[in-house]
Design a protein that fits this description.
The protein is α+β, with helices and mostly antiparallel strands. The protein is 12% helix and 27% strand. Strands 2, 3, 4, 6 and 7 form a five-stranded antiparallel β-sheet that branches. The structure holds calcium ion (2 copies). The site of one calcium ion has 8 residues, from α1.
Length: 144
């Protein structure tokens, strides 16, 4: 889920600089393996988009050797409602169910930035879009 901390870890030569790539993008963090070659990194998934993601690592040893990329590790960020404040996640009319009434409310605010009814922006990212729609569908017909 977005907001969770993902532990990413691996093993390489001792005291190497480890570079992590999220997809093809270098993560701007300095990570070193310890004396046993073990490294770990806490990846904050808050900024990640929902969907499949991959991460891969390569390392530079102290004597300048560069490893090949590790195999990519795949994970998925699952869109999830974060009920907070006065909102009840995707239950936009607060009746305990997620159904067509909530969908019609969502569509009322469709593609709006900072909607006047803030709960319509279910994931609270400032915009009512397909992500909010997918969260609503995920919880469809479920009592909260
Ligand atoms: Ca409802
Ligand atoms: Ca949103």
């Amino acid at each position: 889920m977005p907001g969770q901390i993902l532990m990413v870890f691996g093993e390489t030569a001792p005291n190497s600089l480890v570079q992590l790539y999220l997809g093809s993008k270098l993560i701007d963090q300095v990570i070193y393996s310890d004396n046993n070659g073990f490294w770990q990194f806490e990846l904050d998934s808050t900024a990640l988009l929902a969907g499949a993601q991959s991460i891969k690592a390569k390392s530079l040893t102290t004597d300048g050797l560069e490893s090949n990329f590790s195999e990519s590790m795949f994970f998925e960020v699952v869109p999830a409602p974060i009920p907070q404040g006065q909102c009840a996640g995707p239950d936009l009319n607060f009746d305990g169910w997620v159904n067509v009434f909530d969908l019609s409310i969502l569509l009322n605010y469709w593609r709006q930035a900072n909607p006047s009814f803030i709960c319509a922006d279910i994931n609270q990212d400032g915009f009512v879009d397909i992500v909010d729609f997918s969260i609503l569908l995920y919880w469809w017909s479920e009592s909260l």
